[in-house]
Amino acid sequence: MPKEPLAKSLKNSKGYKQAWIGYKLHVDVNDCGLPISAVLTTASLHESQVAVPLMKMTSERIDYLYDLMDSAYDAKSIYEVSRSLGHVPIIAKNGRRKEVIPLAPHEAVRYRERTVAERFNSRLKEGFGAGNVMVRGALKIRLHLMLGVVALFADQMLKLIS
What we know:
The protein is α+β, with helices and mostly antiparallel strands. 41% of the residues lie in helices and 19% in strands. It has five helices and six strands; from the N terminus they run ββββαβαβααα. The strands form three sheets. A two-stranded antiparallel ribbon has the order 1-2. Helix 2 links the parallel strand 5 (66-69) and strand 6 (88-91). 14% of the residues are buried.
């Protein structure tokens, strides 16, 4: 269970420090836009720290081949765990290195499927209540967000069968 959130402070795109308090929902989504696993964490936790537990949780539920992730997940340990689970990691390279190596053409084509996860997040925020959570406390926030995830799952299933 996440503890009460701490203020997270990072520099925004313009170089100014920006701080916020809250939670983040991390979701693994399949190619059809159906959520498989979800984890609620404090906003101060970096996405890459949730990647390994989320991959393991999803691997226990379904069999899949690719781990598609953005550049925030570009870490050696994530590649290693992904491969140990029998997956192919396709992770955008982070620009923190001197030379950014682009994805191979076949990986770039597969990486475009990551837009499904972005659409899921957008739909969850705009249409299923995650954009404006007006409750406090991890349990209430988790319930609020997971009800949105369940409703989005049902809506997506209806779209797939019709």
